[in-house]
Amino acid sequence: MEINVEFGGGAELLFDNKKVHDVLLPHKEKEWILGDLLVWLKDNLLKERPELFLQDESVRPGILVLDTVNYVIKPNDRIIFISTLHGG
Amino acid sequence: MPKQDFEDLKLEIKRLREELHQKEEFLRERQYKKLQGKNVYNDQFTTEEIVRYSRQMIMPNINPHGQIALKNSKILIVGVGGLGCPAALYLASAGVGEITLIDYDEVELTNLHRQILHSESDIDIPKVESAYNSLKRINSHIKVIPLRLHANSLTIKDIITKNKYHVIVDGSDNVATRYLLNDVCVMNDIPLVSGSALQMEGQLTVYHYQGGPCYRCLFPVPPPPHAVTSCGDGGVLGAVPGTIGVLQALETIKILTNSSGVLSGRLLLFDGTNTTFRNVKLRERNLKCDVCGENPTVKTLIDYELFCGSSSHDKVINIDILKCNEQIDIIDFSTILKDNVVLDVRPKIEYQMCNLPNTVNIPFTEIEKDDVFEKLNKLFKNKLADGIKNVYVLCRRGNDSQRAVSCLKKKFSESPIIFYNVKGGLHAYSKFVDTSFPRY
Ligand SMILES: [Zn+2]
C-alpha cells in the first residue's frame, strides 16, 4: 500500500531532514492502523534519536496527533507529523 | 574613547531626542489642532481619526462599529520580539485603544533582523521601551503601556486581576510561557492568539475562543526540553515570524470586532521554503482537559518552569560535565592557539560564518561517524609525530565542546592524545580576548 508521509516543525530532522516521503507499506494480514505505522516508521525511516519521535508506543509530547493510534490507514493517505514550534 | 564619554554622549542623544519629540508634538498640535477636537460630523471620533482609519472603516468587515470596538479594546502582548513586534505594529496602526506590552529583555544586535520595532539606536535599552517609542510615533492616539517584567505566574496574575483584557497575544519564545498564557486565558475567559516561528516555518491558531480547544487540549504534556529548539540555536528568517505576527494582528482584530472566520479549532501551518499555507482541523475541546475540561485539575496558576522542566526564556543553560584538569581558560588558550590542534565542533555553516585561524571544523553531530574518526586519527598521528599531543576543543558557548571532549576521550582512549575543553567557547573569546570576534 502506497501512502504519503510528511514531517514538519522540525520533526523532519529525525528523518534525514526530508519533509515528504513516499512510503510503500508491505502487505500484511490485518489492516494497517496508525499505531503500526509509528512502529514501522521508527524501524524503517527514522534516522536518529528515536526517543524524540516515539514514547510509550505513541508519538512524543509536542508532536501533534489529530487521530487516534487506531485510525485505519487507507491507500494514498497523506499522514502529517507536525512538531510544535515555540520560538518567537 | 573613554567609557565616561560614551555615557555622556548617550545621555546627550537621549536629551536631544526628547527635545525633538517635544518640538514635533508642539508642531503637530498647532498644525492639526482643528482636526483633533470634537466635531459635529461624528460624535465618536475626531476628524483626524476618521481620516486616518477611513481605509479600513469603509469596509463592511470593520465599519464604524468595528472601529469603535477597536478603540475601546484593551489587549496584552507578551513578548516584543519577532512575533510581538509586527503584531503590535499592525494593532497600533489599526487603532486598538490600549496595548500593554510585556518583555523583560533588552534589545540586542541579533534581534534587529526580525524585531522591527527596534532600531540600531535602541541597543541595550528595554524592548518594551523601544517598542513604546516606535508605536507612539506611528499612532499617538492610542495608549501603549510598556511593562518591563518577566512573565510568570505571579506577575501575570497581578496584571490580570488589575485589568480586563479582551485578547492576549502570545509572542513568547518558550514552552513554559505558552502553558502559562494558556491557563491564564482559560481561567479568565480570554481568547489567546498564539503564534510561533522557527527557521522557515510558522504556526498560528486561536485558543479558548467560543468553545474551541485550548493549548492543553492538544498538548496535555509538555515536550521533552531537549526536543525544543530556540531561534538562537536553530535560526529564523525574519520574514517568517513577520508573516505570523501580522496574522496574529489580523486574528486579534477579527476577535475584537466580533467578526466571523476566526482561526479557532484550526491550526495554520506556514512553510516559507515553498510558501505554502495549510490549515489543519484540530480536535474539539477535550472535555477531560486539565484546565478547560469539565472537571479541571488545574484551577490556579502553577509553577510552569517546574511543569515543563525548562525555564521560561530561550537562553542557553550552561553545563559543567568535565573535571578542572580537562579544561583550559580562554586567556591561556589564546596564547597557545597558534601551535596546537584546535577542533571547532560547531555546525559547518556557523564555522563558515566566522572562525579562528588554524582550527579544524568537526561538527559535533558528526563526531561519532566512522569517516570522521579516520580523519581525526590521521590528523592526530601526524601531530604526534611532531611532538604535539594536546587537542583543544572549541564551540560557540563551551557546552557542545564539553560533550565532544567526553566523546573523543572514549573514542581515542588508546591514543596518547589529551583532549581539553576551551571554557566558555567563542563567546568567552569574544568577551575576554578579542571583541572583534562576532558574538552571535
Ligand atoms: Zn483545554
TrEMBL record, chain A:
It is found in: Cytoplasm. GO terms for cellular component: cytosol. C-terminal thiocarboxylation occurs in 2 steps, it is first acyl-adenylated (-COAMP) via the hesA/moeB/thiF part of the MOCS3/UBA4 homolog, then thiocarboxylated (-COSH) via the rhodanese domain of the MOCS3/UBA4 homolog. It comes from Rhamnusium bicolor. The modification 1-thioglycine is found at residue 88. Pfam families: Urm1. One of its GO terms (biological process) is tRNA wobble uridine modification. Acts as a sulfur carrier required for 2-thiolation of mcm(5)S(2)U at tRNA wobble positions of cytosolic tRNA(Lys), tRNA(Glu) and tRNA(Gln). Serves as sulfur donor in tRNA 2-thiolation reaction by being thiocarboxylated (-COSH) at its C-terminus by the MOCS3/UBA4 homolog. The sulfur is then transferred to tRNA to form 2-thiolation of mcm(5)S(2)U. Also acts as a ubiquitin-like protein (UBL) that is covalently conjugated via an isopeptide bond to lysine residues of target proteins. Belongs to the URM1 family. Pathway: tRNA modification; 5-methoxycarbonylmethyl-2-thiouridine-tRNA biosynthesis. This is Ubiquitin-related modifier 1 homolog. Keywords: Cytoplasm, Isopeptide bond, tRNA processing, Ubl conjugation pathway. There is a cross-link at residue 88 (Glycyl lysine isopeptide (Gly-Lys) (interchain with K-? in acceptor proteins)). HAMAP family: Urm1.
TrEMBL record, chain B:
ATP binds at residues 82, 103, 110-114, 127, 173-174. Its cofactor is Zn(2+). GO terms for biological process: Mo-molybdopterin cofactor biosynthetic process; protein urmylation; tRNA wobble position uridine thiolation. Residues 336-438 form the Rhodanese domain. Keywords: ATP-binding, Cytoplasm, Metal-binding, Molybdenum cofactor biosynthesis, Multifunctional enzyme, Nucleotide-binding, Transferase, tRNA processing, Zinc. GO terms for cellular component: cytosol. Its main location: cytoplasm. NCBIfam families: PRK05690.1. In the N-terminal section; belongs to the HesA/MoeB/ThiF family. UBA4 subfamily. This is Adenylyltransferase and sulfurtransferase MOCS3 homolog. It comes from Rhamnusium bicolor.
